[in-house]
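Section 4.2 – Deliverable D4.2 (structural model, holo form)

The reporting period included a commitment to supply a predicted holo structure for the target in complex with geranylgeranyl diphosphate. Inputs used:
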Amino acid sequence: MADEVELAADQHVRYIVTVEKKKDSFESLVMEHIRLNGAYWGLTTLDLLHKLHAVDAAEVVDWIMSCYHPESGGFGGNVGHDPHVLYTLSAVQVLCLFDRLDVLDVDKVADYVAGLQNKDGSFSGDIWGEVDTRFSYIALCTLSLLHRLHKIDVQKAVDFVVSCKNLDGGFGAMPGGESHAGQIFCCVGALAITGSLHHIDRDLLGWWLCERQCKDGGLNGRPEKLADVCYSWWVLSSLVMIDRVHWIDKEKLTKFILNCQDKENGGISDRPDNAVDIYHTYFGIAGAAFIPIPWHFYRLSLMEYPGVKPLDPAYALPLHVVNRIFLKK
Ligand code: GRG
Ligand code: ZN
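Output (structure tokens):
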């Protein structure tokens, strides 16, 4: 039976559009403090499914800008929330989707991000100072999309990421931190964006990452943990960037993702039979978008799952959006 399951694309589109509109639903309520992230996940998914026009672009751009803090140059997670790099990247990514970076004071936003770099090259997430390789990735990704990498010390940023590499080939949140697929995505993405992938032992890291595939076909985030659809993104994108994605059993992973769908009402959950949410809907479809195609093929815009646009593993945006940004300059 599982063999016959297909991607319920139309239902997922309907689910995303209704979550966006149902502002008083339980899911909207628990997601409130990360609404800008939710907008990025939902809208990127719509674009991957060729349905970005289902939302009003001008309305989205107005709402994004209402989360902007002109004094600092950063974005909050929702209207009236404090600025943080995490939401600043989501805002920039959504504006990239709509090709509307023109509404930004690009230097002001870039200065906000650049101002969060510390002496050792690491980045804090906001004025409170928490340091994490997530913020290194976010800063590099944001500044690269804005063509403003020259505002920071890129070499020091790379050195800090490399200092978080472990003997198992993986990366943690800071020097000595345990390897975790989410942090690995951030560090590999940061190194990809800065042209520094030579710091990675591809076979060693590829081995650690492909060991994340469990008996049920899904991927987990570190040893001994349960499989979860979001790792279809964190693990696969990292494998694509180091050209080792063919080490995953594609059929088994596809089945795992498709079995996490709510085929009637749309949406994808973390594992079969759990409640769906917008975060796992994005990462499930994003996984399906690049189940195993070596990066050099994939860069030629070949797409794997029918009806899903190809995705850039480093910038976490549809490939055509990334091409538009870098070919325009
Ligand atoms: C633009 C895609 C994109 C990302 C922005 C925020 C960010 C950069 C990256 C986050 C990377 C990260 C740390 C992801 C992991 C998220 C996650 C599922 C954490 C759960 O970890 P545990 O240890 O759960 O609580 P497990 O799965 O290990 O049981
Ligand atoms: Zn998850």
